[in-house]
Amino acid sequence: MRKTGGVPRRQWLAAAGLAVLAAAQALGAETHAAETHAAETHAADSDTTQVTPVQAKEVIDRARKLADRLRPAAEPTRLDPLVLALRQLEDRLDGLESGGDIPAAVLQEIDLQARRLARQIAFSNPRLDFDKILFVKRHDPAGLHLSRHMVHQYYGYAALPGGGLYVLSDPFSDAPQLTDLLADSRVENGRLAGRRLEPGTFLRPEVSFDGRTILFAYTEALGEKPEWSPQSCFHIFRVNADGTGLVQLTDGPWNDFDPCFLPDGRIAFISERRGGYLRCGASAPRWPSPTYTLHSMEPDGSDVIALSFHETHEWNPSVSRDGMLVYTRWDYVDRDTDIAHHPWISYPDGRDPRSYHGNYPEKRESRPWMEMQIRAIPESHRYVAVAAAHHGQEFGSLVLIDPRWEDDGALSQLTRLTPEVPFPEAETSHADIAATMVYGTPWPLSEEDYLVVYDPQAKNRGIYWIDRDGNRELIYRDPAISCYAPMALRSRPVPPVIPRQTVQAARDIAAVGGNVPPATIALMNVYDSDFAWPAGTEIHALRVIQVLPKTTSPTNQPRIGAADQTNARAVLGTVPVEADGSALFEAPLGKAVYFQALDADGMAVQSMRSATYVHPGERLVCQGCHERKHKPPSSARGTPLALLRAPSPITPEPSGANPFSYVRLVQPVLDRHCVECHRREAAVDLSGVIEGRHRFSRSYNHLASRYGFYYDTSLGSLHRPGRGGARTEAGRFGARAAKLMAFLGDSHYGVQLDPEERRRVIVWLDANSEFFGAYEDIDAQARGEIVFPSLD
Known about the structure:
- By secondary structure, the protein is α+β, with helices and mostly antiparallel strands.
- Helices cover about 15% and strands about 20% of the residues.
- The chain has twelve helices and 35 strands.
- It has a five-stranded antiparallel β-sheet, with no helix packed on it. Strands 5, 6, 7, 8 and 9 form a five-stranded antiparallel β-sheet that branches. It has a four-stranded antiparallel β-sheet with strand order 10-11-12-13, with no helix packed on it.
- Strand 16 and strand 17 (about 355) form a beta hairpin.
- Helix 3 runs antiparallel to helix 4 (about 105-120).
- The longest helix is centred in the N-terminal third of the chain and has 23 residues, at about 75-100.
């Protein structure tokens, strides 16, 4: 390992018009950081460096309050002399103030002394009881496209070479030492064997629970832009905490990043290996946007499996205090593209993914659009996260999340840690997003104390300690490149090991002798809900619909239906619901699915606008339909009826539902009952003739928008009455809300559909009135040929 010195040269930060003053001589870390922080503070408060007595007193008062907070646990012999010195400094200021005007140079000196004392008080914090900080240096990804989407910053082709993996030793002392951890390390295996990891780019590291091992992602940042090759993608590496034993764990033409140690020894991470593309990415081939989701592997990089089968992106897995896996998911099945990227939680084997906060905003402006870098706070049930932008990068304002409070669709579960920075995009204009990317990568030490990266100009972030009271102290800054993801390099408590209950990992398959069991889903009571069912509702069945991963890169190529950026889907079929509202059925493995509650006519009364999935051997249990998270079941009762019998198989819907096809599902009904009469009497063409650039039929173009029903998924759809929102209004969507249903009975020229024909139209309307059922071979689909999706 190579020592690279202490801290950068003394400098005043250029901020809010403050001129840069760079000294020629190097100063100790304490003086440098205190003076740098003083400059930042003055720049934020005014356009001048002139200190006023009021400002100096505010610094003293803040330091005193910090000392009062720390006193119960701090070492008195260290804290008390600092408090005494602070009191003496305040007395001196009071004496000078009583004598008239105080010279500017004297005020500047008092202010700096106060900040030095405040810094020493902060560093007497017993939470700062570690002697090494691990972090990364890296440039923010560059390029115009990065202002449009938060997904691109994790593609290796967008990375700018430079930086490395570093350790800051004695970070709270007068003489911290910086070590380039990989300076003398060479990769011991794989494609890069014998080479150093340079120049390249690094992503978020992770320290093992015993503090001895480090995981991180690295890309060589080579190749064309954009490109997916081993040289241009992020891959996961492991190294010992002393820089020895550098090995490569993953490789290939896909990005693997955000590694996370699991309590049972496996490693969770984010990967593109599942396949698929973002539905609102960009026009290919300029900026394709492959989907990346949660995976896991053995500690040596073997046995990679998908933990998540979600069809859009996921980020930043970490482990909660109780051993659960917490991560960010982008959730926009049949709803607004921009505003639902919030915490999800699952068991470490990937089963039972649940949203516990933020997924259903009341308004676009009511809460952060994205919450990233979520970490559990030690000795707390709360989490810290970065409130970030959809059209930006992973920086912004910091928040606490308290899932024990009920979610009101706004801010009931949030506490602002950095209220001086608004939520990017949710509370700012699009043009101001970059200026709000100020804080990032919080490492919680307690509910009060955090390591973060910060720069008021959102350009060159340094490492800071901050607290909930607005105190902030610089620990390290490199003037040439940003710091990223600081964390204590030490051991930490191991969360409990939750036994895996899926049979997907190689060791679990071996344990059952290769006899992989099926998966089931049990619903205890469909009526046990957090919404009101329409009066007299009786649910007879659940419809299971699969959401298909997008296999083409450009947005709306092909356009699946009338809704913008909508999902291709397959209606897998139905399962019965018992008289007491319970259901038990066999579930398709590894497929993103959602459910609709059907009445006796087979019409959907309620529908999910999200997705779930099951793994081999999983037994997923739901209490109700949109079950209540903070209340017990509605009433005590005996064993649900469905659990007294074998799981139901899924009964298919009519032909044309899977693979989904308007041409095969709906057009035959129109041909039999509607086409000729409408052509003759109303001069309306309801034929199946294909026309236009989207390759839809004439009947679809006439019916879908005017008489069908679909949820908009495009920008701002939350505000569109009837077709927007984040939650489904029971009984007010699909076939029940479509105008077309009024024309399918005797009152409309004696039309008489048989039960299956009526069912075909209902299925189409309940399935968002789509046209295509796959992203490939649209001409064949338009001709009515069966086209199975290439990725499901």
